[in-house]
Design a protein that fits this description.
Length: about 260
């Protein structure tokens, strides 16, 4: 039976026309599946379904998602991430902090970014948020003065200064948060010359988020990203303390923010 599948041009180019056509006719596509984003059941015979191809260094895995959760796309991941995704496909309230080393495009040396996920209450509604804080000052390439240009660099990319957490920040188009297989994979930024998005920050291993955070992300179809220079937020063991730290950073003029759409395109 034909499936209600979306197969993007990028996915078709990777798997070939023959395999894509077999998927569309139902030969190689499952009827029911667990959505690779929200992890709830889906049915490709009854609802629009996206094909999502995870491509590693040596292997590739085809997964399925509700079309409302993820568009059909090719996701470049490390082989280690891909194996973690394979294991996940087969098988509240404290904020979750993840610290990863990742070369930052705007710095000459690798920067260590602390990334904390948590729910933030704005205008009476809970929103999924990522809070990014480096462990050291971020300088412009070639800068010799030893200053911290982390916030100015992000403002140049379109992030907005925040003086109070009283409204949802505007959407920053071209940037996105990749949440797949129910886990956080990366923050993506526009590629050079209008090419495919590239990772601004990427987890070395897919990061777990709480069910409530993932549910809020799928509800709003976006994630709020807050960024502050080193020493502004710190490690907070509870979401209320994280909110207090965000409020103080905003009041001190040390916070920028944007709403980033889910999943990459």
């Amino acid at each position: 039976m034909p499936r209600m599948l979306d197969v993007s041009d990028a996915v078709r180019a990777e798997i070939g026309d023959e395999e894509a056509d077999r998927l569309l006719t139902g030969a190689n596509a499952p009827g029911s599946y667990d959505c690779t984003s929200c992890r709830t059941p889906g049915d490709s015979e009854q609802e629009r379904t996206s094909t999502v191809l995870f491509v590693g260094d040596e292997t590739a895995v085809l997964a399925f998602a509700h079309a409302g959760c993820l568009p059909s796309q090719v996701v470049q991941v490390t082989e280690e991430q891909l194996q973690g995704a394979v294991r996940s496909i087969g098988g509240e309230a404290a904020p979750q902090e993840h610290q990863q080393e990742q070369p930052h495009r705007t710095t000459p040396e690798p920067a260590v970014l602390g990334v904390t996920s948590g729910l933030v209450l704005i205008e009476g509604e809970l929103h999924p948020a990522l809070v990014v804080e480096p462990t050291a000052p971020i300088a412009r390439p070639g800068a010799t003065g030893g200053g911290d240009d982390f916030l100015p660099l992000l403002i140049e990319q379109g992030f907005m200064p925040v003086t109070a957490l009283d409204a949802v920040p505007p959407v920053l188009h071209g940037w996105s948060v990749l949440l797949a297989v129910g886990q956080l994979h990366a923050v993506l930024q526009p590629g050079p010359h209008g090419h495919q998005p590239v990772a601004w920050w990427q987890a070395h291993q897919p990061l777990q988020v709480t069910d409530s955070w993932r549910a809020a992300a799928n509800k709003h179809q976006q994630v709020l990203m807050f960024a502050a220079p080193v020493g502004s937020i710190g490690r907070q063991p509870r979401e209320d303390l994280l909110r207090d730290a965000l409020d103080k950073a905003a009041a001190n003029g040390r916070l920028v923010a944007a709403a980033l759409p889910l999943a990459g395109t």
